[in-house]
Each structure stands twice: as structure tokens, then as C-alpha cells.
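re: that chain from earlier
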Amino acid sequence: MSWDTERAQKLLAFYWALKPTARRLFRDEIRDELVKAADEGFRDDEVARVKAQLKMGLLTGLESSSARAEQLARQILIHGRPLSTEELIEKVEQVQAADLQALVARMLGSPLSLATVGPILHVARFDRVAEKFTVPSSRAA
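^ sequence. v structure.
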């Protein structure tokens, strides 16, 4: 799933591979957590932990040539040029809890996209999924 926030400038995707019987529960849990994040925001310790994990992932990704190639390709697609490690870490450090809360609120008020791979017999109808993940902007903000 992805959202078109700020005219396709950002993409947030979720991937899950579950038994058909667990999909609805998982989808509802994800939605509830997103709505909670839009309503209540994030604690500073949560943001710090995620920043540390992102920075660690960026740095350990430098050890593998395929991971570095993926990083460079992603940077060129998103930014139009490769970014230095220092620039990436600086961008991570600039993110604040309020930025994340606002992003989640905008995301929940934006149109949803859904893509599936493999057999679609047990995939929920798009309108039902979109209904679960679209929150009126007055409630999400």
C-alpha cells in the first residue's frame, strides 16, 4: 500500500505476507497504530530509537556492493543525485516527532494505492481496504 502525499513526492509502503485468515487482523492493527500516531504523535525515545536504527542501516549498507548500488539508485530517483553519508545522516537527524505526526495525518487523509503480487483470490476489495485506511483530515490532523 502507498499514499500519494504531496503529489507523489513521498511514498510509504507496507509489505506483508500472511495467511488469508490473519490479513484482516494485521491490516486493522496497522491502521489503528497509524491513527494513534496521527492523534497522539510519537515519543522522543521512539524517534531516537528509529533514527539510530536508520543510521545503522545506512552505515551497514555501505559494506555490501549490492546494498550500496540500491542506495545510490534510490537516492538518484528521489533526489536526482547521490547523497553523501553525512548528508543522509543529517537528513535523518533533522526529523522531529511533530514532522512524523503531520506526515501520518496527511497520509491518512490522502488517496490510497494498493498493489498485490501472486494469487488474488483472498485479497480484499480495494474499496474496503481504502475505507479502512482513509481517515477524514479533520480526524487525522
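Confidence is low (pLDDT under 50) at residues 1-8.
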